[in-house]
Amino acid sequence: MTDFEDIYSLYYNDVYKYVLSLCHNPSFAEDITHDTFIKAIKSIDTYREQCKFKVWLCQIAKNHYFTLYKKNKLQRPEDIEMEMENLENKLVVKETALEVHKALHSLQEPYKEVFSLRIFGELSFYDIGMLFEKTENWARVTFYRAKIKIKEEIK
Question: What's the mean pLDDT when you consider all of the chain?
């Protein structure tokens, strides 16, 4: 058995567990651990015994992990999970928007127009009331009733 094989078998589990704690992905952890030992062999002459050999290997592993992470070759599970949540939320919003538009299409006037002017036109209740020659309070009540009808339609 060579010195490298001894070092590899002695420190592999420690380095692997450390990397796994960083990336939470067994496959990536194996790859990074393997790369760590290759980098350690290539730069063994830089080891100055200022720290334990295992610590030196873990530093190499950490640096390699963050280098890959910065280059977007790796994603942390939290980031992947957040991307999935964002995607799911976008799909829900898109589906909900379609349902709202369908429900809005089935509304009678003036509910349809008041709702559209408020939501899509971003007009104030005062302006909507003025357009219909009604009061601001009328616009608020009409908008509220339109919302109720849309919610009922969606359910």
Answer: 81
Q: What is the pLDDT of residue 92?
A: 60
Residue in this structure with the two tokens 């830089």, named with its chain if needed: 46
Share above pLDDT 70 across residues of the chain, in percent, rounded to a whole number: 83
- pLDDT bucket at 1, cuts 50 / 70 / 90: very low
Give yes or no: residues 70 and 109 share one domain: no
**Structural domain boundaries, residue 27:** 3-74
Tell me the C-alpha distance between 71 and 144, whole Å. 50
The distance in angstroms from the start CA to the end CA of the chain is 71
110 and 90 both lie in a single domain: yes
Mean pLDDT along residues 3-19: 86
Which tokens go with 113?
């127009």
Do 62 and 48 share a structural domain? yes
Helices assigned H by DSSP within the chain:
3-23, 26-42, 53-70, 77-106, 111-119, 125-131, 136-154
Q: Of 24, 51, 74, which residue constitutes the final position of a domain? A: 74
The C-alpha atoms of residue 53 and residue 131 are separated, in whole angstroms, by: 78
71: pLDDT confidence band, cut at 50, 70 and 90? Answer: confident
Task: Identify whether residues 67 and 14 lie together within a single domain.
Answer: yes
